[in-house]
Amino acid sequence: MDTIAIISDIHGNVTALQAVLADIQERKVSRILCLGDIVGKGPNSDLAVDLIREHCEEVVTGNWDEFVAGTSGLEVVKWHSAVLGQNRLDYLKSLPFSIEFWMSGKFVRLFHASPRSVNERVQPWDAYEQRLSLFQSSELCQADLPADVAGYGDIHNAYLQHLEGRTLFNVGSVGNPLDLTQASYVLLEGNYGNRSLGRLNIQFVRVPYNIELAVQQAVESEMPDLELYIRELRTAKYRGIKD
């Protein structure tokens, strides 16, 4: 049996990322995949990119990665771009759209938000047909084949659902979880590369980390949108939701 750790949405929170990487190492898992949004929101996008490049076997692009590496004139984008530097920005621009492989007889497709776009947001409570569409392929994917297992990030809300014999899961967020205040990732266990049916397990892992240290790092950086970021870390409540 092979075990793969799947992480996503670090958002420059190196304290949370280090805690998750330590947990993965303690479990003796060597293969790590990242589903994007390494950067933005938090203060240490540069260090997050460096750690992801060091530890992850494959990485896909996220909407923040694409946004920050683009040409936006927004001040928040300029701030994060300056932190990253040109070499890391070039790395973000080079990231592929999806990761696809067979495991225990199931075709697995991993992406950031949907198989069609890094900006299409799908929640676990959205319309059935919208969730079902996450198994389909698009011109951005590698294979013109519907997924048996589809996994994604983006919404910072971990969940698993079975839809018409297929499995859909969201890995949650390492650095900016919006369901509870612990870093989230997934372990996928099965026979990697094998097209014969076999045992396939999906395990959700929550890792506590030092939130106040992450807050202190954000304060010291004088980053934009500071109070909104701190509120999300401490409450796991999305900034777009009013009290």
Architecture overview:
The protein is of the alpha/beta class and 243 residues long. Helix content is 31%, strand content 22%. It is built from 7 helices and 10 strands. The protein has helices at residues 14-26, 45-55, 63-68, 75-93, 128-132, 211-221, 226-235, and strands at 2-7, 31-34, 58-59, 98-103, 106-111, 149-152, 159-163, 166-170, 183-190, 201-207. A 5-stranded mixed sheet has the order 3-2-1-9-10. A 5-stranded mixed sheet has the order 4-5-6-8-7, with no helix packed on it. Strand 2 (31-34), helix 2 (45-55) and strand 3 form a beta-alpha-beta unit. The chain is globular. The N and C termini lie far apart (46 Å). 42% of the residues are buried. The model has no long low-confidence stretch (mean pLDDT 96).
List keywords for this structure.
10 strands, five-stranded mixed sheet, 7 helices, 243 residues, globular, alpha/beta
Task: Produce the secondary structure layout.
Blueprint: E1 2-7, H1 14-26, E2 31-34, H2 45-55, E3 58-59, H3 63-68, H4 75-93, E4 98-103, E5 106-111, H5 128-132, E6 149-152, E7 159-163, E8 166-170, E9 183-190, E10 201-207, H6 211-221, H7 226-235
Parallel strand pairs: 1-2, 2-3, 5-6, 6-8
Antiparallel strand pairs: 1-9, 4-5, 7-8, 9-10
Helix pairs in contact: 2-4, 6-7
